[in-house]
């Protein structure tokens, strides 16, 4: 029973990966490998019938006894089923359950939290340690794909169990989706949770501080972007004045030096210079992009994200990779893992959706989208922009804190009147206005960014312009970076 006097789910756990990663997160998952690359359900490859559904968890690293919530958002009205594949081998249907009264409708573009404050149950984590995979699928009509006959009642819980294991679930799901008529739309998403062993997750020796801070700041003004160099320089200046970063611990890579080789050398400098007790901040201002998933094929949505580097010509994506115009997230991740500093923070003022050809407004209010599309070499057409993903862009290996300028299905902007990237300008303003730490500065910058974009009142591609900065901070690193007054 929970403190509210209602039933709780004790999460069922199954070791899904053969290796036991013990360095960073205990016995179940950690830094020696990516514990997020096993996906149970297929995604819908048909753009005409796909429901874009995002699934997020209130925590990505939890201990037995803690409660957790999940949030779902979709691009259209749909009926949602949520399942938990844990380390005990059982697949439990979390929603709908006996308290949902048959109601599993999620309204379009309206985040729905499970459980909500009104629900008469909680999700509570139980041991042992390992990887918990929360799976969700959405259909345009109720009762489609998996039927009630494929679930059995569990004793003393409000939940039902899928009859079979992961392979059975994947087989049944594929069989049923293949037989759906064209008028039924569907989509799937997954979020993975690291369950601890009951002890605190190990942290670096200087858990109460950040040690020596090193900064790599990159400004890559490609395409129509004009102020990336200024963004990187201003960010470096405020880190020196407010965070105390020493000149010797700073590398600026600007303009024509912000090539693939220049960025790679900067990351190599961090790898050669930092120690485990140090901190590394990597700042990037420039265009982002999205291309078809490259080996290793590890993206649920079939897309890799990329930083666009100088000279940043828009061409077909294979040529962009070959000519080192872009650094794909998988490549960046490999380089990032070589950096010894345990506390890494990535500040990314770019985006992975939108179109470089769209310039909104004019004069001081002109907005330039920080996205560069690439062509499909087989069709000659620009690669279609990505929609909402099941999780924010993962630039690293789940150890890093990421301050992203916008959500994956949005665009970030450079504003002529500010002579800056909007998110960067707001973040620097928040620090200079007295934010105590980087977490508080982000919260202030997020509010300022959303207000600034909304105030412009521009229209893009038939909908209101939105830019919602997003923070991913699984270990709570960001608040440790404290600013001087």
Automatic annotation (TrEMBL):
It comes from the Bacteria. GO terms for molecular function: cysteine-type endopeptidase activity. Residues 62-142 form the DUF4384 domain. GO terms for cellular component: cytoplasm. Coiled coil: none annotated. Residues 224-471 form the Peptidase C14 caspase domain. InterPro entries: DUF4384 (IPR025493), Metacaspase (IPR050452), Pept_C14_caspase (IPR011600). GO terms for biological process: proteolysis. This is DUF4384 domain-containing protein. It comes from Desulfomonile tiedjei. The lineage of its organism: Bacteria, Pseudomonadati, Thermodesulfobacteriota, Desulfomonilia, Desulfomonilales.
């Amino acid at each position: 029973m929970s403190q509210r006097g209602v039933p709780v789910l004790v999460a069922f756990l199954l070791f899904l990966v053969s290796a036991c990663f013990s360095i960073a997160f205990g016995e179940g998952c950690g830094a020696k490998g990516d514990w997020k690359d096993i996906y149970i359900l297929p995604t819908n490859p048909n753009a005409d019938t796909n429901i874009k559904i995002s699934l997020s968890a209130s925590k990505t690293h939890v201990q037995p006894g803690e409660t957790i919530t999940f949030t779902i958002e979709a691009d259209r009205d749909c009926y949602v089923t949520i399942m938990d594949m844990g380390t005990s081998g059982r697949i439990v249907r979390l929603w709908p359950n006996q308290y949902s009264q048959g109601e599993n409708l999620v309204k379009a573009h309206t985040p729905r939290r499970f459980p909500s404050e009104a629900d008469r149950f909680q999700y509570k984590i139980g041991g042992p340690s390992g990887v918990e995979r929360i799976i969700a699928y959405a259909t345009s009509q109720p009762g489609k794909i998996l039927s009630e006959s494929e679930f059995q009642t569990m004793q003393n819980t409000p939940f039902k169990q899928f009859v079979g294991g992961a392979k059975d679930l994947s087989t049944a799901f594929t069989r049923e989706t293949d037989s759906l008529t064209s008028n039924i739309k569907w989509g799937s998403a997954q979020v993975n949770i690291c369950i601890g062993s009951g002890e605190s997750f190990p942290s670096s020796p200087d858990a109460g501080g950040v040690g020596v801070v090193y900064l790599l700041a990159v400004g890559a003004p490609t395409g129509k972007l004009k102020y990336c160099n200024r963004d990187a320089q201003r960010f470096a200046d405020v880190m020196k004045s407010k965070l105390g970063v020493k000149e010797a611990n700073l590398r600026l890579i600007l303009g024509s030096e912000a090539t693939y080789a220049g960025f790679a050398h900067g990351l190599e400098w961090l790898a050669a210079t930092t120690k485990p007790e140090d901190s590394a901040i990597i700042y990037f201002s420039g265009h982002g992009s999205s291309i078809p998933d490259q080996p290793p094929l590890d993206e649920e949505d079939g897309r890799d994200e990329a930083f666009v580097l100088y000279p940043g010509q828009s061409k077909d994506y294979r040529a962009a990779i070959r000519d080192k115009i872009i650094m794909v997230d998988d490549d960046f991740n490999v380089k990032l893992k070589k950096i010894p500093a345990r506390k890494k923070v990535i500040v990314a003022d770019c985006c992975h959706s939108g179109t470089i050809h769209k310039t909104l407004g004019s004069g001081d209010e002109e907005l330039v989208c920080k996205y560069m599309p690439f062509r499909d070499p087989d069709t000659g057409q620009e690669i279609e922009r990505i929609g909402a993903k099941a999780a924010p862009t993962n630039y690293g290996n789940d150890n890093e804190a990421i301050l992203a300028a916008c959500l994956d299905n949005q665009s970030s902007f450079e504003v002529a009147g500010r002579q800056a990237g909007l998110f960067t300008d707001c973040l620097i303003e928040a620090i200079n206005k007295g934010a105590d730490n980087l977490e508080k500065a982000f919260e202030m910058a997020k509010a300022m960014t959303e207000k600034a974009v909304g105030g412009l009142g521009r229209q893009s591609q038939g909908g209101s312009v939105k830019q919602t900065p997003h923070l991913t901070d699984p270990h709570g690193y960001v608040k440790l970076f404290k600013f001087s007054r």
